[in-house]
Amino acid sequence: MLKMPQQEDIKFLRESEGLSVSDIARQVGIHWRTAKRYADQSNWNVSLGKRKSSSPVMGPFMEMVDTWLEEDQLLPRK
Length: 78
Fold this sequence. Notes:
This is Homeodomain-like domain-containing protein. It contains 4 helices and no strands.
């Protein structure tokens, strides 16, 4: 992640100077994708939601495994 002055510089070059992403990348010395991300980002306060964890391989068997584990807890300790 770039520091705030670099981010502001990229935004200034894009909006006020009207430079292209590749020109900004050359001038600042960063990769063009990084320059594009910072130049085109309008709201940095957008929060990303948590990823939904899924178990596609275990999905059909989760209920059976849970049953086994519950039954195992009811058995006397070995």
